[in-house]
Amino acid sequence: MNEQSICRSLLAELETLLAGTSMRFMEVCGTHTVAIFRSGLRSMLPSGITHLSGPGCPVCVTHDAEIAAFFELAAHENVILATFGDLLRVPGPSGKSLKHARAEGARIEIVYSPLDAVELARKNPSDTVVFLGVGFETTAPTIAATILTAERLGLDNFCVLSLHKLVPPVLRTLLDNPETRIDAFLLPGHVSTIIGLEPYAFLRDYHVPGVVGGFEPADILLALCQLARARRDGVDLVGNAYPRAVDDAGNPRARSLMEQVFTVEDALWRGIGRIPGSGLGIRDSYASFDARARFSLTITEQKKKSACRCGEVLTGRIAPKDCPLFGTRCTPRNPVGPCMVSTEGSCAAWFKYAGV
Question: How far apart are CA 185 and CA 187, in angstroms?
Answer without folding.
Answer: 6
